Amino acid sequence: MRPSPARLLNILVPVKRSIDYAVKIRVNQAQTGVETNVKHSMNPFDEIAVEEAVRLRERLKDAVKNITVVTIGPTKASEVLRTALAMGADKAIHVEIPETPGPEPLGIAKALKEVVGREKPDLVILGKQAIDDDAGQTGQMLAGLLGWSQATFASKVDVDEVKGVVTVTREVDGGLQKVECKLPTIVTTDLRLNEPRYTSLPNIMKAKKKPLEKLTPQDLNVDLTPRLETVKVTEPPKRQGGSKVESVAELVEKLKEAGVA
């Protein structure tokens, strides 16, 4: 028999709607950004975070009281919240903003800080980065604003709810590193943490009945106006085709002509 937990855990999982990982990215004609009229889905690292929250509840049984997912995005971002609810989250919060321009990591972190103040989670799990801007800053900024401990790039997460401790294994250049954090804490997920489950049709139907709260930045008293302006976006230069040589001597000669030998 498991000992009674010291506390019931509330888990918050921020997720982001981003261009689907399988879509080929193209710069728009105005060169102000990339073409966004394409398929979108939940950021893959955030999907891993949702899966880990659900797995923690499966492992810890009654110790996890609630899993809340939150997104800060346009109206269409509610789609990824429904996906997270179908995966096993209990309720969702949608901080609705215009589609463009998108907020920066610091603005997102400030908004999440206010959500944390409202929801009082013990553990926040989010993806280590979003595949659209690859900033990889939100989790760390949120930990700094809250004054919480943090463990980034998690490849394994163990929670001792009795002691109130989270042990995170993370991959580093020299091998594996274990970080122990006291709750409340921030954890960001790496690619090898888990493989997200497929959502079944019954769970998709059940997700439609789960609560989804709508908020605005004004409700949280945060300003998400970007501080940076993107002047121009261009595609990288196309790679030049290679050529074949008949001998080592010819190869050396070609390298000399290119100024690399």
Automatic annotation (TrEMBL):
GO BP, sorted A to Z: amino acid catabolic process; fatty acid beta-oxidation using acyl-CoA dehydrogenase
PROSITE patterns: ETF_BETA
Matching InterPro entries: ET-Flavoprotein_bsu_CS, ETF_a/b_N, ETF_b, ETF_beta_N, Rossmann-like_a/b/a_fold
Top-rank lineage group of the source organism: Eukaryota
Pfam families cross-referenced by the UniProt entry: ETF
Cellular localisation: Mitochondrion matrix
Chief location category: mitochondrion
Gene3D superfamilies given in the database record: HUPs (3.40.50.620)
Key words of the record: Electron transport, Mitochondrion, Transport
Domain (Electron transfer flavoprotein alpha/beta-subunit N-terminal) ranges: 32-224
Cofactor: AMP; FAD
GO-annotated molecular function: electron transfer activity
Family: Belongs to the ETF beta-subunit/FixA family.
Function statement: The electron transfer flavoprotein serves as a specific electron acceptor for several dehydrogenases, including five acyl-CoA dehydrogenases, glutaryl-CoA and sarcosine dehydrogenase. It transfers the electrons to the main mitochondrial respiratory chain via ETF-ubiquinone oxidoreductase (ETF dehydrogenase).
Subunit relationships: Heterodimer of an alpha and a beta subunit.
Protein name per its UniProtKB record: Probable electron transfer flavoprotein subunit beta
Organism: Serendipita indica (strain DSM 11827) (Root endophyte fungus)
Phylogenetic lineage: Eukaryota, Fungi, Dikarya, Basidiomycota, Agaricomycotina
